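Hi everyone, sorry if this is the wrong subforum. Our group has a chain we'd like a structural model of before ordering constructs, and none of us has done structure prediction before. Sequence below.
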Amino acid sequence: MKKLVDFDALFDEKLSEYMKQNAGKYSEKQWESIIPRLYKQFGDIMIPSVKSTPKGYYAAMTDEELVDSLRRHVEEGVPVSDFLCRELEKRACPDALIDLLTSQNEELLLLAVNLAGANERAFDAYFSILQTSGDGELKDTVAEQLKAEADKAKERALALYERGVEPDLMLEILSRTKERDDRVYELLVNAFRTSGELPMHASYLAAYGDARALPLLLETIDRDDINYLEYQELKYAVEALGGEYTRERDWSSDPYYREIHGTD
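Answer:
Right subforum, don't worry. Here is the predicted structure as tokens:
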């Protein structure tokens, strides 16, 4: 078992020395752009105490050793360096990382989702998380990964929607599919018609990009009972689908309009 190395702490030591040597040379804003470059260069610097560069240290590990190092860093409270994360990302979601997607440690689980990314091999675990987790941030992160490869996630998202599992998240995922599918279109349209959340469901229609929804959107945006926030999202959806809404509307008495534009 390889020892854990706090490369971020080692970098901070070298950075402190460098900043002392260059005191007064750079403004605070300049340091903000210099430090990330120094950190990147640090990845290729030989560290005598570990007999390797930070990049080389992790590149020499097996998939299992990398994932075990990630787990131990989190469990033992040692900062997880960017060099470890980047090396894991290069490995294209190895089996050992998929195993972490069932972890009960929320910090570790969130890290594993971000590192597994939109790899289809992780999708079974992702859909399991959406069905069982009570962590909203985690579920949103999982949904983002599934949206990136929505066509590959489509059938499972459709099945869970029909079962009533996280329906809005399933619609969000389905709205990012590229292949046209009448099942998806009808679900998005029906949700728009029946839900009280017009802005959200209008955004799903905009993301899906099927111009057949234009008449429905134009009919809805022309209603006098919508508020300014709904109008804004509907107008965006209309334009995203290649349409245009030109009727002048007076929003001066709308509370959302007054709040946004600072009107008493």
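For your construct planning: Residues 90 and 115 are 9 Å apart (CA to CA). DSSP finds 16 helices and no strands in the chain.
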